[in-house]
Amino acid sequence: MEPVALDALGPSGPYRARNRRVVPDVSGTAVAELSMVPRLYVDRALAALRRAPVLPVAERTAALADAARIFLADTVEGLSFETYERSVSRVSGVPISIVRRAAAEIAEAAEQAHRSAYGARPCGAVTDWRDPATRDGSGVWTRRGDVFAVHAAGNHPAPHALWLEALALGYHVAVRPSRREPFTPHRLVAALRAAGFGPERVALLPTDHDGADAILAGADLGLVYGGDDVVRKYAGDARVLVQGPGRSKILITADTDWRERLDTIVDSISFHGGVACLNTTAVLVEGDPGPLAAAIAERLAALPSLPPDDDRAVLPVQGAESARTVERYLRAQARESKAWLGGEGILEELGDGSTVLRPAVHQLDSADDRRLGVELPFPCVWVAPWSPEDGVAPLRGSLVLTVMTRDDELVDRLLDEPTISNVYHGDHPTYWLEPGVPHDGFLGEFLMRSKTVLRG
Amino acid sequence: MATTLEDPVLDLPFDVRPDPEEFLRAALRWHFSPETGAPFWVERARSFDFDPVEDIRGFADLSRFPNLANDLRDVPARDLVPRGYGPDPEIVGVYDSGGTTGAPKRVVLLREWTDRMLAWSSAQLDRHGVPRDVDWLQVVPTGPHMVGETFSRQTVARGGWPFTVDIDPRWVKKLIAEGRSAEAGAYTEHLVDQLAHPLESQDIGVLLLTPPVLERLARRDELVALVRKKVKAIMWVGTQMDADTRDLYRTEVFPDTILVSGFGNTMLLGHTCERPGLTADDPCVYDPFSPYMSLNVVDEDTGEPVPHGERGRLVMHHVSKGLFLPNNLERDYGTRIAGPEGQVGDSVADIAPVKVFDDEVVIEGVY
Known about the structure:
The structure holds 2 protein chains of 2 kinds. By secondary structure, chain A is of the alpha/beta class. Chain A has 13 helices and 23 strands. Chain A has helices spanning 39-51, 57-73, 81-92, 96-118, 164-168, 183-197, 209-218, 228-233, 262-270, 289-301, 320-333, 408-416, 443-447, and strands at 4-6, 8-10, 13-15, 20-24, 30-35, 125-126, 138-143, 147-151, 172-176, 202-204, 221-225, 240-243, 248-252, 280-286, 317-319, 338-341, 347-349, 354-357, 360-363, 380-386, 398-404, 420-425, 448-453. In chain A, helix 1 (39-51) packs parallel to helix 7 (209-218). Chain B is α/β, with parallel strands linked by helices. Chain B folds into 2 domains: 2-90, no CATH class; 110-352, ANL, N-terminal domain (Rossmann fold, 3-Layer(aba) Sandwich). Chain B has helices spanning 2-5, 20-32, 39-45, 52-55, 111-127, 146-157, 169-177, 181-201, 211-217, 221-230, 243-253; strands at residues 91-97, 105-110, 135-139, 162-165, 204-209, 233-236, 258-265, 270-273, 285-286, 293-298, 311-319, 324-337, 347-352. A 6-stranded mixed beta sheet of chain B has the order 4-3-5-6-7-8, sandwiched between helices. A 5-stranded antiparallel beta sheet of chain B has the order 9-13-12-11-10. Chain B has a two-stranded antiparallel sheet with strand order 1-2. In chain B, strand 7 and strand 8 (270-273) form a beta hairpin. Chain B is globular. The interface between A and B is medium-sized, with 36 and 22 residues.
């Protein structure tokens, strides 16, 4: 099959660049040619986004709902939904059932974007200065800027659900897709443009590093996904919100029997193929971690190795070379730990150049082992003992912490810890997420501010 | 004695092409005879294991010369000028190359060579349709760098006046090398601020600048309007510009303006314009002023030429009556392109200080 042409989507329509990057699938076959725009194009596209008048809120809300329908049902830029979901699965290696679910989540997020976005509004602020409350003086919730830039992730389609809230709030948005999986933002941006935002309010700008800097520089605010290096790079930049490593964890205290929660624990590690920031990276248990690690390993060992576009697939797939790189890295990290699964290697070749990353379960001796934060893009978990004396410290730096305990004071302390973003108390998987709850804070906390308006 | 060594083939007008080998042999006799040669070369030749006059039969043999680039970092500049020019040679100036790492290489630009090179380059501009008798606004380095002075002379020779804004490229490279990209950006904005004044108040017909400055100029609507109104041609130099960007300038930003690029190098002692008649899809190809300026695109491990269309490292030769600078291995890489009929050496495109453009490798993390 001929590679699909994924054009940039700029202010005067689709743009086919001379500079195109091949997007390979996991077997190395070219699936798409992505048009890479130069910096000059980025500059001009951002200028056009800035010039465009803001749509009234009702029109934005309606357009988002319409985009949800188009995204799921229509042929968009020549791609049917079936071709789209298969392409995403083939290039990202994410199981197709997960891609399908993520697409549904994105569509639901688009329908709910207004409610989710405005859910962040402080109760002391109204949405419009015409509100009667301003006669006596009131906060009014206003945008911090006009143009929002997104350096998107390519691990999983679902993160694209987030930036839709910016459109709901009246921002104009420029998305730089990842080169690994540009299909989802391409389809989503095209659907939004067709649904009423038009080419002047949302753009897809595939570009190299130089152009990527230009997208952030030309926008008022930006959202960037990345690892520790990206977090460090933007640490001092108040205009950039970084979605860093997930390092989600589960803590089980002695008053709770993990045997009754094993489904949730295993699911937290392996659902989404283990590629999401919400997947559990570490499990800490009060008492001997050995039996728990053994039980997790037994369950995960049973998962089948299948091509990602097989409906029964549950494990992630990568190209042979990148899969070997991940395995080498794991092996180096796992030294002097007890391997319950994956100690002999995690790779299973599918024979077409692609490789399944099979689960790995390692046991560590102490709760302060820094490897509890080694997050890899497949079901890979570190199991360690925890005691009340260890306290909150080993649980720092978690996007989601599921805590299975009857100790409410412990829950208080975990909730008070600033570097834990979300606390799920009880039998809940770390990947639980619904529209309307904050994922890493509400996006609106970053995009908006309150101003006092007094009128008379 | 000097008169017999002063072969007329060394003094041809720019538009009369000498036979390359006849020219080379005459140049070697001139440069390596104690009566006419530069003290630098006459002295260095003593340690060669070959005789430059007898053993060098063609341009391919220039690779036998050791790379003396390092000597150019500290040799007294006066020792570089052939004695045949007498005690008081007419020079345009003494100029540096690079200088980003360590001491710069230094060359001497003689009036005679400069006039010939500029006459040739000027004819190239004519072929691109760049008008004569207009004023230029030049945002390029002056100081120890050659480009500012040579273009100012060229502008005057073409009947215009040069207006200038200086650039310190070493400072910019230093900022970028240290990861201070915001400061580098602020410096470029500072250049755009400065060029805005003459662009507003003077009748500027040609803009000479670098791609980053042009890019920032293009972000300011009022300057874009001024360029569209006044400027007949934009010449960009210094770094490369991809085909998509060139096309955007030509079709969207400055649709009625001639856009032409130049490539210059201190060790070539001059510059050249892009080959006329290239399509929007072609890379910018540069044909040097053969046989005086010539270059080879080689595999840096073997020194052998790379196939046409492949990237390799640049080796440059300058051979004129005024100076002899053979076999300089540059830091830059380029794509080897077949030259026009009769040209010595290669033509080149996509010149940049990198061999390949690597993809980043990220291991840890899920994104």
